[in-house]
Write a structure and sequence with these properties.
63% of the residues lie in helices and 0% in strands. By secondary structure, the protein is mostly helical. The protein is elongated.
């Protein structure tokens, strides 16, 4: 096989690989759209439902009703919100 044929064969193979990569990205992108929530359908975050279970599992031991390290209580929504968004004067 001469040098020109090798270059043509290599060029053809590269085109095929590029095409296959393009198809893979296209299919992956289409499948990813299936998993996106509809626009405007995002649920609002609820303290009791979304936040409190995380705090209960990881934070109440040191920042709950029995013990409030650093005077920080995360078992009360108001206290947790003040800690997250302190008022600055």
């Amino acid at each position: 096989m001469n040098e020109t044929n090798k270059k043509k064969q290599w060029s053809s193979m590269v085109r095929h690989v590029k095409f296959l990569i393009f198809i893979a990205f296209l299919v992956t992108g289409i499948r990813a759209v299936d998993y996106l929530p509809p626009a405007g359908a995002q649920a609002k975050v609820d303290f009791k439902r979304d936040i409190e279970p995380i705090f209960a599992a990881h934070c109440y031991q040191c920042h709950g009703a029995k013990k409030a390290s650093g005077q920080l209580r995360l078992d009360l929504k108001g206290s947790a919100m003040r800690a997250a968004f302190p008022v600055r004067l």
